[in-house]
Design goal:
The chain is mainly alpha-helical and about 100 residues long. The chain is rod-shaped. The protein starts with a strand and ends with a helix. Strands 1-2 form a two-stranded antiparallel ribbon. It contains three helices and two strands.
């Protein structure tokens, strides 16, 4: 079992580097939510607003993650286009200088 050490007087946990690098995905979130629903007291259920807020937050994080992947792809394409334009410019400069 991994131990979590407190960071300050409020006992906020700090994850080890190994634990911090692990990421939870949609499957993990759904498993946690299902477990939470199974374990809740039927006479005092979880507040609907809190549940919707959790799902909205997860959706936002998933959307941001997908956007990061798309932006990295765009940046790579722009880098390739810039290199191509530099090669074209260099070739045209050599052609005009040799004429």
């Amino acid at each position: 079992m991994t131990s979590i050490a407190p960071v300050n007087s409020k006992n906020l946990p700090v994850l080890s580097k190994d634990m911090a690098e692990k990421k939870l995905g949609q499957t993990d979130f759904l498993r946690l939510m299902t477990t939470q629903l199974k374990a809740q007291d039927p006479f005092s259920p979880v507040d609907n607003q809190a549940m919707v807020a959790q799902m909205a937050q997860f959706s936002s994080v998933a959307g941001i993650s997908e956007m990061n992947v798309a932006l990295k792809s765009i940046a790579e394409q722009m880098g390739a286009q810039t290199a191509l334009l530099a090669d074209i410019k260099a070739a045209s400069t050599r052609k005009t200088a040799g004429a």
